[in-house]
Amino acid sequence: MHSGILNINKKKGISSAKCVSLVRKALNQKKVGHTGTLDLEASGVLPIVVGKATRVSDYMMGKDKTYETLIEFGKKTDTLDAAGEVIDKSDKQITRSDLEEVLKNYEGEITQIPPMYSALKVNGKKLYDLAREGIEIERKERKVTIYDIELLDFNFPYAKLKVTCSKGTYIRTLVDDIGEELETFAYVKDLCRVRVGDFGIEDSIDSDDILDMNKEALILSLNNLDMALDNFPRYDLHKKYFSNAKFIHFVSNMGKNLAFIRKALVLYYCIRDEETPKYVKAVLAGALGYLILPSDMIPDALVGVGWLDDLAVISLAFKVAGKYIKPVHREKAEKRIPFGENDD
What does the pLDDT profile of the chain (344 residues) look like in tens digits? Predict the structure, then answer.
């Protein structure tokens, strides 16, 4: 199974789900997903998570995003973009300076009401499905952050903006709100997402090219899933541990916090100490072995014994080791897994 993140440039008119389907077909792999829906009428960066990278999709969804949008003033559509029907018009003229002045009000934290034509769900039903049935319901305001909003071009009735924003920002709503503040109407004529986190459109693969690419080339285009976690602290174990496959399996799969891992390291160093009695080493090795073993290898007699959870095993092992756990064992463990501000 291949794992990683593909930087896909979704073309206008193709759904995010369709992009996922194309990648599944190209890689002949089922475990594929996207990291947040990009509107059908929008184009641009759509990170596709493959294999183990599906585990970090939520972190990708939380990344900051940058959009370039073409606005047309004087018209309002029911979907707030070019796909909808024009439902109102205005003849009011605005100038570049008028727009620049209003844009200042949209920097920083703002509130938005999600549009009815959106993928948000209410009672299990998507808002756009309700909108197509002619049903409009009340939506709660949400806070989002506009980190930067830049006017790239202005030629009334058109303007081009570049917006860097937080998760959950609706550019269609932003444009509609700007139009209202200018006492006119405005809608998104074109929208392109040019960046998600560190994924830029300049390094993307066109969705039209996915099936035409050589499979090996597509695999080589997979980015490391660590890119989704770049805002978290990194901890590196000494390279000598990579020779101990069981220990690495234990650290990478037990899913515990750093304090727990450090305690396991203390036991490990106690076992390696020549002054530790053999019977103590045997008990500690048994404890670590229990933690390392996959669940299907644990003896039936031990399955379902409530007190035999990982924390209990570690605690019992420390009691058995007692005085044989030395300060130097703790110091070595701390060097491998340093204490953090929020570490217990």
Answer: 889 999 999 999 999 999 999 999 999 999 999 988 898 899 999 999 999 899 888 888 889 999 999 999 999 999 999 999 999 999 999 999 999 999 999 999 999 988 887 777 777 778 877 878 788 777 889 999 999 999 999 999 999 999 999 999 999 999 999 999 999 999 999 999 999 999 999 999 999 999 999 999 999 999 998 888 887 777 666 665 555 554 555 555 444 456 677 788 888 889 888 889 888 888 888 777 766 544 444 444 444 433 345 667 778 888 888 888 899 988 888 877 665 433 43
Q: Return the ∠ at Cα 332 (arms to 328 and 336), rounded to 5°.
A: 165
Joined together, the tokens standing for residue 54 give 């599906």
| Residues acting as catalytic residues | 39
Report the C-alpha gap between 49 and 327 in whole angstroms. 44
**CA distances to 66, 84, 188 from 166, in Å:** 9, 25, 19
